[in-house]
Amino acid sequence: MKNTHFAIRIAGPAGLGMHSIMDIIANAFASLGQHVITDSEYQSIIKWWLNYYDVHICSEKPYITRGVDVVISLNEKNIYPNLSDLKEWGLLIANQKWITKVEVTQPDIRKKFIVIDPLIEEKYENTYLLGILAGYLGLDASVFESAVERAFAKKWAETVAKNIEILREYAKLWKEQNQWMQAQFSNTQEKKSLTYGNKALVYGAIESELDFFSAYPMTPASTILSEVISSNRVKYLQAEDEIAVMNAALGASFTGARSMVGTSGGGFALMTEWLSFAAQAEFPIVAVLSQRAGPSTGTPTYFEQSEISYSLIPTFGGCDHVVLCPSTMEEGYYVAGQALNIAQKYQTTVLILTDKQFSEGKVTVSELIPAPVNRGKLIENPWEGYKRYEFTDDGVSPYVRVGTPNGDFIATSYEHDEYGATTEDMELKVKMTEKRARKLENFYEKERIMGYRVVNPTAKKMIVTLSFTAYTAEAWCDENPEWGLIVITCLKPLDARLRDVIVWLEKVVFVESNFKWQLEDYITKEFGLKYVSGLQVDHLRKYDLLPFFMEDFNTLTK
Q1: For the purposes of burial, counting CB atoms within 10 Å of the CB of 109, is it exposed (0-12), middle (13-18) or buried (19 or more)?
Q2: C-alpha dihedral over 164, 169, 173, 174, to 10 degrees?
Q3: Does domain 5-191 have CATH number 3.40.920.10?
Q4: CA dihedral 544, 549, 550, 554 (to 10 degrees)
Q5: CA-CA-CA-CA dihedral for 375, 376, 381, 382, to nearest 10
């Protein structure tokens, strides 16, 4: 079955409710059984600048495109920049006063696009435009009503009623005049629900018994904290900086709590000294690293995957850790709990590497399954003479909750003996170093998981990517069956079985959003791919602040 696609863009300055309109539209089409995926592009300048929020509606697998079918603009400044993405004879909806201003410099605008420009002189402009959209697409106002009511739930009842009245009036008016897309969006499928990456991570972790979360707000990880707070189910701390954030989380971990932090590149940099401490003291900790465009403060509200290399070696002293990379909302929900398990089972650091699009993008989801809880070698009744850092065959020592009788121990950043007492004994140093190194040996065999997933495994040409990019890549491979897809779900340790998949290919293309080809460099060197006879290694890279669209993948066939 052909995967039909329709894209609606809401554009305008910050502060005029574009995000709310996006939510209303996205939830409405999800209620019709459509697959929905969103893309938000906004500037860090607070007000009166260029921003847009896209809702992509698909009949089958969700994906994003640069080109859109509809632009709803909330001011004149956001009309012209978005016309280049509006398809020929696409629909432009805006207040007449904005269209009039644009026509001064773009007099032929009505010759290229379908322009609807009602004269709106009172407030509730967004609802008028939403009603026109519903009617023009052949939809009843009822499709949007529940979402509008939720959006205005905190307003006066009269305000909610007025918005619903406008929505119904304009949807009816424009539906009578147009039957443009009615058949495409008829309600023929089971209603779907939406979530976004940060929310999926939070509630997946909560269902897997997250005990403590700390953070300092930092785009695009900020909503992890707000979701934790609104859940009212987890102890949390919004600290004064990321150093305090990590110390608080490690303090909770020291007591036996399942602890997590969330941040982006600049905040993560402040945390890394304490991740080295965590490795020495063998504290479990989970950190969500949501990438944004760098370096340094960079372009904080836009997309880039430029912290891949950083995630691989975030500490000093040769520490081992795990890096998980969810690529769907369902994976994010499960991976959050899986990360908590791995952290406690191996008493190590687990990074959940995401990006801005994954963190903030909303996607329709199927069943969300949490990871079953596994707290590793937690003992409730330690024996007399208990050794917190006891030498074991697998390198993992039994641990206790603080305050457990006979469970006293010392936690320090210095090298130590089996009880935690500081030592500079050379023999002990060697044994402790080897003990810590044994933890993650045969990781995949012990965990019985795969570090990647493959789409269309018989293809001889494969795309390799990770995170949110996988949605569009998979949809593109469906339309181009000579291509397959490898999605990396665990970046470190790298699953050695992946090499056996790649070496038999004719061509492998690494698709990533950074200038320094970090994913390609890592995997190519780990597997020695440059020395594999008959294998063509290529790449498709972007670093223009935008995610990969379907149009970008089309360049692979040229």
Answers
A1: middle
A2: -20
A3: yes
A4: 10
A5: -140
Residue type, 372: P
This prediction has a pTM of 0.96
Q: How far apart are the C-alpha atoms of 209 and 373, rounded to whole Å?
A: 7
- State the angle between helix axes of 197-207 and 329-346 in degrees (0 to 180), rounded to the nearest 10: 50
Q: Phi then psi for 475, rounded to 5 degrees?
A: -65, -40
Which residue shows structure tokens 């469906």? Answer: 478
Query: Which residue type occupies 321?
Result: H
CATH number of 195-365: 3.40.50.970
Task: Please report which helix (H) or strand (E) contains residue 192, including its range.
Answer: none
369, HSE (Cβ side, Cα atoms, 13 Å): 5
The neighbour count for residue 118, using CB atoms within 10 Å, is 18
Residue keyed to tokens 């010759």 = 111
Burial class (CB in 10 A: 0-12, 13-18, 19+), 210: buried
Residue 185 is predicted with a pLDDT of 65
Domain 451-557 has CATH 3.40.190.10: no
CB proximity list for 257: less than 8 A, separation 6 or greater: 211, 212
Structural domain boundaries in the chain = 5-191, 195-365, 451-557
- β-pair partners for 454: 486
pLDDT band at residue 196 using 50, 70 and 90 as cut-offs: very high
Query: Do 5-191 and 195-365 fold alike per CATH?
Result: no
pLDDT tens sequence across 467-509: 999 999 999 999 999 999 999 999 999 999 999 999 999 999 9
* Residue 506, token pair as written in the block: 């004719």
